[in-house]
From TrEMBL:
Keywords: Carbohydrate metabolism, Isomerase, NAD. Its EC number is 5.1.3.2. It comes from the Bacteria. This is UDP-glucose 4-epimerase. InterPro entries: NAD(P)-bd_dom, NAD(P)-bd_dom_sf, UDP_G4E. One of its GO terms (molecular function) is UDP-glucose 4-epimerase activity. Pathway: Carbohydrate metabolism; galactose metabolism. GO terms for biological process: galactose metabolic process. The lineage of its organism: Bacteria, Pseudomonadati, Pseudomonadota, Alphaproteobacteria, Hyphomicrobiales. PANTHER family: UDP-GLUCOSE 4-EPIMERASE. Belongs to the NAD(P)-dependent epimerase/dehydratase family.
Amino acid sequence: MILVTGGAGYIGSHVCIALLDAGLDVVAVDNLSNSNKASLDRVQSICGRSLVFRLADIRDEETICEILRAFGVTAVIHLAGLKAVGDSNVRPMTYYENNVLGTMRLVSAMKRANVKTLVFSSSATVYGIPRYLPLDEKHPLDPTNPYGRTKLVIEEMLKDLCRSNDGWRICNLRYFNPVGAHESGLVGEDPLGVPSNLLPFVAQVAIGRREKLRIWGNDYDTPDGTGIRDFIHVIDLASGHLSALRQLRQPGLLTVNLGTGNGYSVLDVVRTFEAASGRSIPYEIGERRAGDVAVCYADPTFAKDALGWTSTRSLQQMCEDHWRWQLQNPNGYHGSKLPTVRER
Ligand code: NAD
Ligand code: WQD
């Protein structure tokens, strides 16, 4: 049985699909602070299998310990966390409390229940401003915002845990820019309020929920002047977690980029999304967004060497799948009619 923290969230729901499809049993824990339980109802209908959902907070060590013991959990995939960069500048302590303290309590519960295999959701944001490209795992770590620093603190904490020679098997996965949705269009990203990330904003413009996209700067030193990122399909990302789990056979620490190695500009995304949706995406050019870098993409070599994992899905497929989800669920999970997932 695998425990997925943050299992009802965007990436978590896709990780649950990957695990169920691989024949593994799943208990998903989420406090639903940024998600909807309907995502897990849909995960079950996609996979034709059930999972267990527990409404719980990772900071509640007793409850997490009980869950680990009650379900005979053997490994944890830890995605629960707050992730909004701008918000983390405004409420830094909330981020440290939720992400860092939450992970400390989770690890404590795991130690008590003698579960010592952990895959952690880190982020390419730990690299900060790229000093060279592509970004490999040896690149210096210097995050530029509190959110990124919580990820770095957690990575360092987990590194120390592995150094303690207490049998821990840990993998930090540094995600680049996850986008897209399950090909069924049943699960996808459902941001609260105004999306700050590019793809959800573009999709909401295409569906008519927002009038136009504002492109944050077209004067970068890139071929078309707009920022370049390494967008990765969320299904490829999810399969990386399965590869990581399978690789954690010996005690030790692995830290691995999950990216495609390809960079696409904001305008590439706009054009590809227009082609995928058949809708036009009106946009205007705004000032650069504070904290943005011109170009960021991964060196995915180590992921292939260490995990035997590579991404396979194109930007076109990312946009097509993201669009299918948006078209079938113009208001996200709001109004979901599917049956309620079992709660124990
Ligand atoms: P998400 O907000 O959709 O999922 C996170 C889930 O964790 C949500 O369902 C939320 O309700 C839950 N949660 C938050 N705090 C919790 C707590 N204390 N106890 C229990 N549940 C809690 O976000 P996501 O995009 O699916 O991201 C998942 C993880 O991946 C996060 O840790 C995020 O920092 C990391 N990450 C995301 C991205 C990205 O661009 N989406 C990039 C890099 C890393
Ligand atoms: C991508 C590009 C924007 C919105 C963020 C976090 C990072 C990670 C992934 C968690 C940039 C441009 C965007 C818009 C735009 N999350 N853009 N108009 O900034 O690379 O990374 O999400 O770990 O930590 O910082 O992703 O999707 O916000 O932006 O022009 O309305 O799209 O300027 O060039 P980013 P993004």
